[in-house]
Amino acid sequence: MTAAGTRVPVALSHGVTAAGTRVPVALSDRVTAAVTRVAVRGCGPCGGTRVAFDRVPAPSGERMIDWAGFLAAAVLVSLIPGANQLLGLSNAVRYGPARALAGVAGRLAAFVVLIALVVAGLGAVLAASATALEVIKWVGVLYLVWLGVTSLRSAARGPGPSHVEGAGGGVRSIVVREFVVAISNPKALLLFAALLPQFATEGAQIAALGLAYLVVELLIGLLYIAAGARLGATGIPGRTQRRVDLGAGIVFLGLAGLLAADDLR
User: Fold this and answer.
1) How many domains would you assign to the chain?
2) What are phi and psi of 168, to 5 degrees?
3) Which residue from 61, 168, 178, 244 could staple onto 103, CB 3.0 to 4.6 Å apart?
């Protein structure tokens, strides 16, 4: 309100000009304000993707969640192939869709832990700790190297019975592999710590966003499993199976190298 008592509109950040004229907004104001720079490199939160968000404080009093903007970002991040998606695809080819789906449950369990840290306010603390990120990073590197070497050894041995418990196809082994790959990826923690608070400020809202991300991750994981199950149902020849194992081993080692070389600070 001016000195003369004339009220003037002030909602300039919500598609209204100084003269009070509403103008069309091509993209949600919440996304435009919160996400001003997105840099994608490599794979998704389960692999090597770096998604950087410039933190912009939410307007005072605003409590609405921009679901359209958040879900679009979640789908984009989840679609990009990473180590967990590759594991889901490979598990479906080798062991069938049921066991691959159990592996996805292990991945989601790891994400629940990471999202809980963000809701509790510890995600930002860990993300700001260079020591914590380095420890998580090198655990992830070593585990990816182990997966890569295991796949290469499997390729060297040749194809074996794909649905045998002792061949690494037990439900527990599959779930543990997916869980460890997800929980030991520091970029997943950085992603949740940077993405979720951009669309909500309260713990309950952040938890709701985390739950929505889990649903998106499950649906995208099912797509990878379906692709792997379709490929496995055709009866892969032994030579093709060796090539799949060889390719998976090379990719895992490549992801390990990218993670080791990446500066997370």
Assistant:
1) 1
2) 85, 10
3) 178
Question: Which residues constitute the domain of residue 52?
Answer: 29-261
Domain presence at residue 203 = yes
Among residues 80, 118, 93, 117, the alpha carbon closest in space to that of 216 is found at 80
- Neighbouring CB atoms inside 10 A of 55's CB total 10
Instruction: Measure the CA–CA gap between 35 and 33, rounded to whole angstroms.
Output: 6
CA 147 to chain CA mean position, Å? 19
Judged on CB neighbours under 10 Å (0-12, 13-18, 19+), 255 is: buried
**pTM, whole model, 2 decimals?**
0.68
Does 206 reside within a domain? yes
Residue 63 corresponds to which tokens in the numbers above?
A: 């409590």
d(CA 74, CA 65) in angstroms, rounded, equals 14
Q: Kindly state whether residue 69 falls inside one of the protein's structural domains.
A: yes
Distance CA 207, CA 227 (A): 31
Q: What tokens were used for 118?
A: 């963000």
**Comparing C-alpha atoms, which of 220, 85, 101, 241 is closest to residue 171?**
101
Give me the torsion for CA of 248, 249, 253, 254, rounded to 10°: -40
Does 20 fall in a domain?
no
pLDDT tens per residue, range 62-119 = 558 889 989 999 999 898 888 889 889 988 888 889 999 999 999 999 999 999 988 8
